[in-house]
Amino acid sequence: MMALHGLGRYLAAALAGRFASEGVGIALVLLALERTGDAAYGAFVLTAWLAPHVLAAPAAGALAGRVRRPRLLHVGSLAGFAAAVAALGVLTGRAPTPVVLAVAVAGGCCGPMVTGGMSSLLAGLVPAGPRLDRAYAWDASTYNAAAVTAPGIVSLVAATGSAAPGMVLLAGAGALGAVLAATLPYAAPRTGPGRSGGAGLGAGLAALWRVPELRAITGATTVAFAGIGALTTVAVLFATRLGSPGAGGLLMTAFALGALCGSLGLARLSRTRAFDPGRLARWSLAATGLALAGAAAAPALPVAAAAFALAGLCDGPLLTATLRIRAGYAPERVRAQVFTLGAGLKLTAASAGAALVGVAAQAPPRLLLLAVAVLQLLAAVLHLSVRPGYAAVRSEPGGEVPPELGPVRGPLEGGERGRVRGGVEDGVVDLS
To answer: What pLDDT, in 10s, does the model give residues 294-319?
Structure first.
């Protein structure tokens, strides 16, 4: 009961923090445009906000593995995130540009702990097994719910007069997340040989490369998110091609609502059956690609919206599968790094995809949408080709991990540890 109660507070904290994270981009652009009339200024501030998400991810993950008081780190990150949003609401368009950019960079440095860093807490809140599977599905739903609601609410608030109240709302959501995070139970740092100093900055990256399941899901989601990052712009261009210039937002809302339904549906199904997260990820990627390819052939907006909703429905379970694989295969000492690095790499790929579609914006919209679909299919093929053979790891109830292999989890069978055959270096087991 205590774990489930803690899960409820965690989900509320995660939803509040991610609501702020999902809304801040559009709020910053709208506020900058309102106060300066210069869209480029808003783009510079947004870039300053986003860039540290990638650069700070390894340091944030390493710090999470080393810090003696994890509560202080997580609560402080959410509070710093909220404070930066509030400060930008006051300073944007009014203070000297270097000051505004510095505040944006500081707030962006807190971003990895608001997204992937929060997810790394779940394994300590919920017992391993079906409950943890459902917990990751619910956690994925907080991302999708925030993606659905935050941009729309911020835009609605801005339409009533000013984007500044939207920034206040987002700052309040971040502060609420910090308050709720302060009430969560945090596991005490584990001690033992080789753990007293925590993992180095490169250990998380080494785990992503050396553990085949982590390598497979990280490579696949990075490729897929290059397409997802381009999808917003492509949706606007495609809606214009269909004769509805303002309906790009409708297509993306349909996608986001579909993703929310997909993650919530998986959470319910997880009550009665277990899912192989690797297979789920591949099917999710392939089905999303096929649905988007169908959307590219849509003759009218209603058909395209239905296809986008179907694509989102197929995409929703991908995040759940990704979180479950990271939790199950990341060595315990670098779990936080694996979560923050994974989120940072996806954001980098999404940013690159958005930039590339900007360069190729003159291409036929149907071709661009088909390219996004192909990236999802390529990601599924990549995961299939990189995934390890399951003979390398077998789960045995009550099985012990040889001490020399360190704190490594086996495959995702009830969260049980498995016997591992392979090499080990710097606390990371090579299962290949």
So the answer is: 999 999 999 999 999 999 999 989 98
Quote the CA–CA distance of 380 and 365 in Å, as a whole number.
23
Half-sphere exposure for 177 (CA within 13 Å, toward CB): 31
Strand partners, 420: 393
Dig out the tokens for 274 from the structure: 């277990």
DSSP letter at 330 equals S
pLDDT tens across 151-161, in order? 878 878 887 87
Tokens encoding 103:
């505040």
The amino acid at 9: R
Q: What is the tally of helices (H) and strands (E) in the chain? A: 17, 4
Angle at 247 between CA 242 and CA 252, to 5 degrees: 110
What is residue 233's predicted lDDT score, i.e. its pLDDT? 75
Torsion of CA 84, 114, 228, 310, to 10 degrees: -120
HSE-CB at 213 with a 13 A cutoff on CA atoms is: 29
Residue 230 in tokens: 């381009």
Instruction: Assign 393 to helix, strand or coil.
Output: strand
CA dist., res. 384 & res. 387, Å (int): 6
Per the CB < 8 A criterion, the answer to whether 311 and 261 are in contact is no
Please, are residues 203 and 334 in contact by the beta-carbon 8 Å criterion?
yes
